[in-house]
């Protein structure tokens, strides 16, 4: 199964996407507090908005029928990248934080769904194995991303680190999974 070219491609995409997602999912509250100076009660509200925005993923099937799987994949990568760039260059509370965190939350949930659907078609003989590989690689990417993000953040600060992690999702716009 892993010798399959589309499955290898999907594993790479899942790993890099998981790595990029660590910037928000593992460091979001710290970035908002330390870099953007947002107070803790607002951070709690933003965190709930981010998580709750994942509910928008219920529209994934309808949106896929309208724009296609590859375009939805690209859109979800943009949903993860754009807020990181905004966070990188923000230095205080702004109302745009609300839609930005919603994009982070919905982008990751939608992307996960797209990758899992692609995994079932990339591993036709064992769809559950394909899903397992995609989930594992997303998680491995998040672990790796957490370590790397923390090290770069400590050494170079939020602007450089967030911009770098946003660029991972932007790079993934050019590497699409097989449908």
Description:
The protein contains eight helices and no strands. The chain is mostly helical. The protein has helices spanning 5-25, 28-35, 40-52, 60-67, 69-88, 97-122, 127-156, 158-171. The model has no long low-confidence stretch (mean pLDDT 93). Helix 3 runs parallel beside helix 6, helix 5 (69-88) runs antiparallel to helix 8 (158-171) and helix 7 (127-156) packs antiparallel against helix 8. It has one domain. It is globular, with a radius of gyration of 16 Å.
Q: What fraction strand?
A: under 5%
Fraction of helical residues: over 70%
SS field, number of helical segments? 8
**What global shape is seen?**
globular
Task: Summarize, please.
This protein has 179 residues and is mostly helical. 78% of the residues lie in helices and 0% in strands.
């Amino acid at each position: 199964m892993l010798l399959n070219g589309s499955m290898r491609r999907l594993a790479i995409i899942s790993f890099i996407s998981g790595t990029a997602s660590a910037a928000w999912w593992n460091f979001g509250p710290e970035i908002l507090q330390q870099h953007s100076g947002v107070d803790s009660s607002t951070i709690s509200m933003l965190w709930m908005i981010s998580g709750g925005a994942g509910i928008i993923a219920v529209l994934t099937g309808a949106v896929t029928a309208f724009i296609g799987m590859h375009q939805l994949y690209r859109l979800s990568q943009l949903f993860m990248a754009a807020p990181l760039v905004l966070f990188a260059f923000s230095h205080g509370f702004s109302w745009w934080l609300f839609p930005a965190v919603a994009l982070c939350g919905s982008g990751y949930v939608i992307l996960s769904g797209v990758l899992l659907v692609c995994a079932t078609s990339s591993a036709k003989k064992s769809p559950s194995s394909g899903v397992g590989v995609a989930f594992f690689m997303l998680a491995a990417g998040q672990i790796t991303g957490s370590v790397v993000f923390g090290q770069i953040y400590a050494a170079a600060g939020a602007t450089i680190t967030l911009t770098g992690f946003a660029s991972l999702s932007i790079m993934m716009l050019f590497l699409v999974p097989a449908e």
